[in-house]
């Protein structure tokens, strides 16, 4: 057993020493004599952090809102037609004569779409059918010939040829009954002339 009078291993620091340490710390110094950073020196580091992060949050908003405006500005409204129906018809017809069938088809279609009631629109439908047939598009050619014939304003020779070409397109698609009906209309309305002769031969040579 230890003696009651034994001296403690760690003795408490004298009161004067504790008081001096407290005074040193209150004046910004450590007990060893070095200067301790004051709160005023560290404050800017804490306040500066949000300033760096702010532009990162704002950047995506600017990109998202600017994109639709740029797309809308890139789609100008179509301007007025500077050519007119006659010139459009002539340009399409010149393309057909030059065997440029895609350009002829596009030209006649554009003229018909813009000016469906013009005096040249019926002829444009007829020549569109011819262009489509030469471009090996019989189904569309039939529709165009039918549209031209439905107006009732095609002159006789052209109307007979439209019926002949329509029958040829129908045979090309294997629609023999339709072709016979078309040839019958041709021979009934226009029994004389080259289209009628070719129509009779068409029926006899059809498979």
Overall description:
This protein is an all-alpha fold and 207 residues long. Among the domains are: 82-154, Tetratricopeptide repeat domain (Serine Threonine Protein Phosphatase 5, Tetratricopeptide repeat); 156-207. The protein has nine helices and no strands. The chain has helices at 15-26, 39-73, 85-97, 101-114, 121-134, 138-150, 156-172, 176-189, 194-205. Helix 8 runs antiparallel to helix 9.
List keywords for this structure.
disordered N terminus; Serine Threonine Protein Phosphatase 5, Tetratricopeptide repeat; single chain; mainly alpha
Topology, pairings included?
Elements: H1 15-26, H2 39-73, H3 85-97, H4 101-114, H5 121-134, H6 138-150, H7 156-172, H8 176-189, H9 194-205
Helix pairs in contact: 3-4, 4-5, 5-6, 5-7, 6-7, 7-8, 7-9, 8-9
> CATH superfamily assignment of the domain at 82-154?
Tetratricopeptide repeat domain
**Structural class per helix/strand content?**
mainly alpha
Oligomer: single chain
Q: What about the largest sheet?
A: none
The 3D shape can be described as globular
**DSSP helix fraction:** 55-70%
Q: How large, in whole angstroms, is the Cα Rg?
A: 48 Å
Residue windows where pLDDT falls under 50 for at least 5 positions: 1-78
How big a fraction of the residues is strand? under 5%
Helix count, per DSSP? 9
- Second CATH tier, the architecture of the domain at 82-154: Alpha Horseshoe
Separation of the first and last Cα atoms: 133 Å
The CATH C-level class name of the domain at 82-154: Mainly Alpha
């Amino acid at each position: 057993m230890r003696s009651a009078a034994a001296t403690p291993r760690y003795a408490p620091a004298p009161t004067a020493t504790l008081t001096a340490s407290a005074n040193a710390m209150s004046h910004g110094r450590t007990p060893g004599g070095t200067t301790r950073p004051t709160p005023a020196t560290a404050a800017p580091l804490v306040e500066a952090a949000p300033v760096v992060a702010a532009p990162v949050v704002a950047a995506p908003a600017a990109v998202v809102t600017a994109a639709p405006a740029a797309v809308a500005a890139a789609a100008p409204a179509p301007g007025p037609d500077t050519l007119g129906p006659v010139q459009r018809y002539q340009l399409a017809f010149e393309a057909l004569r030059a065997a440029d069938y895609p350009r002829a088809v596009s030209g006649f279609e554009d003229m018909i779409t813009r000016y469906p009631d013009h005096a040249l629109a019926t002829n444009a439908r007829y020549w569109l059918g011819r262009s489509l047939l030469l471009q090996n598009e019989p189904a569309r050619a039939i529709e165009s010939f039918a549209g031209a014939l439905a107006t009732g304003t095609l002159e006789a020779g052209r109307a007979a040829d439209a019926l002949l070409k329509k029958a040829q397109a129908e045979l090309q698609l294997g629609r023999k009954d339709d072709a016979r009906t078309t040839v019958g209309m041709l021979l009934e309305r226009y029994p004389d002339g080259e289209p009628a002769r070719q129509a009779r031969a068409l029926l006899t040579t059809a498979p």
